[in-house]
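Duplicate of earlier report; Olfactory receptor input re-posted below.
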Amino acid sequence: MEKAVLINQTSVMSFRLTGLSTNPKVQMAIFFIFLIFYVLTLVGNILIVVTIIHDHRLHTPMYFFLSNLSFIDVCHSTVTVPKMLSDTFSEEKLISFDDCVVQIFFLHLFACTEIFLLTVMAYDRYVAICKPLRYMTIMNWKVCMVLGGAMWTAGTIHSISFTSLTIKLPYCGPNELDSFFCDVPQVIELACTDTRITEILVVSNSGMISMVCFVIIVVSYAVILVSLRQQISDGKRKALSTCAAHLTVVTLFLGHCIFIYSRPAISLPEDKIVSAFFTAITPLLNPIIYTFRNEDMKSALKKLIRRKEGKEK
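Output:
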């Protein structure tokens, strides 16, 4: 009975997104900039996945997790950027309630899974650098598959719980979201009921996951840095390069999650800038960081290109 009442109270059939700007010239500039970012994200991350699949030398735990990261970044960017690009040419920028819910589900599925993946990658680097002789014993393929399945399962459970929290709330107006995509904090802010408990659950769930994983990652790299003091200079340089790349991605990605989900559902002017960076620019960093800074990836990529050129001839 209570469920039926909530459904009747939800009279909002769609939400109106404010977008990143209302200025036509600024909107057009945003469209071309983010279109370039999106295309580069797709090409770069798909190229990483294809290269890892085709080169047997890269069939190691590190590159298995890297291919997962690239796949997630493609999906994560696709959840929000195409809608934002199409809204550039729309005055109303509407998104239906159902589409909004779907966007929230997949946004949190890929974002949460990536948080767990970055944590697993930090553990993988810890084992590789601090326990190199036991690396393939500890990080065998069975362990990699279990960790991969666990992070996707945890991401799915988290996403279902967040989507359920959002759906259960009644929405009876207004329907304007001060963003360019649907996310839990902005949507629940429009609910016509007391959302304090929901906000507490959001902070305790997403905020806590982001903070705990960030601390685990920082501790892992602190232990790695201490261990590197005892290694020779060449090995130290390569390990530091890998760790620096990973920490760059972690800081930018988790920085957004901590900023957005570790506080009450209140819209701030900085939210749009942080979210734009999070959805469009951060997914592009993987191809740049892991390809241009990684000799193994560059070598495998050149080999793949030569192979394709040879087939064409």
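The first helix runs from residue 2 to 9.

Merging into the original ticket.
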